[in-house]
From TrEMBL:
Originating species: Acidothermus cellulolyticus (strain ATCC 43068 / DSM 8971 / 11B)
Any one GO biological process: D-xylose metabolic process
Entries under InterPro entries matching the protein: ATPase_NBD, Carb_kinase_FGGY, FGGY_C, FGGY_Carb_Kinase, FGGY_N
Record's protein name: Gluconate kinase, FGGY family
EC number: 2.7.1.12
All copies of domain Carbohydrate kinase FGGY N-terminal, residue ranges: 9-249
Classification via Pfam families: FGGY_C, FGGY_N
Keywords: Carbohydrate metabolism, Kinase, Transferase, Xylose metabolism
Catalytic class of the enzyme: transferase
Keyword Transferase included in the entry's annotation: yes
UniProt family annotation: Belongs to the FGGY kinase family.
Amino acid sequence: MSPDGEPVWCGLDIGTTHIKCVLVGSDGSLLGIAKTDTPVGTDGVGPCHDPEEIRRSAEAVMCRAQSAARVPTVVQAIGVTSVGEEGVPLGRNGEVLYPAIAWYERRPSSSARQWLTQHPGEEIFAVTGLHPDLGLTVFKLLWLKSERPGVWKACDRWLGIADYVMWKWTGRAGMSYGHASRTALFDLAAGGWRAEWVPEVLPRGLDALPPLLPGGGIVGLLRKDAVPGLVTAADTPVVATGLDHIVGAYAAQVTEPGSVLDSMGTAEALIAPVTVEQFRSASYERGVDFGVAMAPDRLVAIAALQSGAGVSSIRRLFAGRDAAALAELDQRTAAVSVGANGLCYVPPRVRSGQGGAFFGHRFDHGAEHMTRAVMEGWSLAAADALADLDAAASDVVCIGGGSDVTFWMQMKASILGRPIRRIRTPEIVAVGAALLARRATQADDVPERGVAQVDLTPPVDAWVAAYAELQPAFLERAASVHGLHAGHVYP
């Protein structure tokens, strides 16, 4: 007998900082929402995630979201999204051999250096759409090969962090094309694993990798009592949705060329839908990555920045984690004039690993000036990266925690010289996962058009001309630190 309650679709987002869950009703309304801190540990070398801790935290937050719902609910399907790059090596009996090395952890190794001599950056980009970066999956596997050879040799199967959770719930393995395209083992043009490369980084070759699914593909059915306390329908599909940024773009309806998503999380990603032909003609020197959106023939260009982490760190440096102190710092920062009283900040560049720099620091610059300069620096860097996407005139849509800071949004709009759309729906990435779960299980049209709550942030008239004057000086200083790459500094 089926339980009584409002039918809902569950979206789970395993993020860098938090694990979030939403329950979306038949009419697209949010009936339940909850989040918890993402548990982080270490292997003695750097940050890692215990996949079982991730699973338990995910299950707890799903139950909390259901408890928080204003009416009794019954989950019809579960969509799962997560960060990319990181995953779990499993032994022959399905045992976890090693924790998931955090996606943002970059570990050099002799195996990586050797592999890069065999496959230089231009070749990697031509095949995968990615620039060599030690954060990518392939380099985490090569680190295991060099530094944990016993683990590497015993690896019978490798699953992404979202895939691991879904496998534990269903007993079946599956990975989204979007997540696969962040491994540097996926051939974008061919639409599948790069068969010649996989045996170089996994001892069992292709047999160790999961089958691939489009965004919204069903991995399997939730096993009975797999998530204790969660009220579900009799047969509850578990759905692979894709990379977190891409799932957010889906929910924000940034799915066609001509619009750009600015996903302002811990990492900032500028995402522009593109054609396969645009990828094939792209220049390696531009520094823009490419990946899969919902299906192999639907691609995106991605310009990555570290603005969320950069702004958060400077705010915590001056105000700690106290909400009142942070609010007071934000108020003072917003009152500082454009240009931060002559203080210019050039952010780090992810591609080169080169650090950032302050220019023009004086004794009378306080915390509010340094915070303003950091926010301006990241915003100017994002504008340069946006131009590098060949999308300077496109519609820009912002999601993520950073978009909640109104004066930061005003700063971005003023630098671009046009309004920016801001999605106000909470946990929009998890909402996207829920919508994809519904799309996978319902023949009728998903009511996603009414889900995203949008407002418009216009430029501040007095700031537009000031930033237009400031931008060339910023780019000149940024080029002096990082150099120019196909006419741009960032990404």
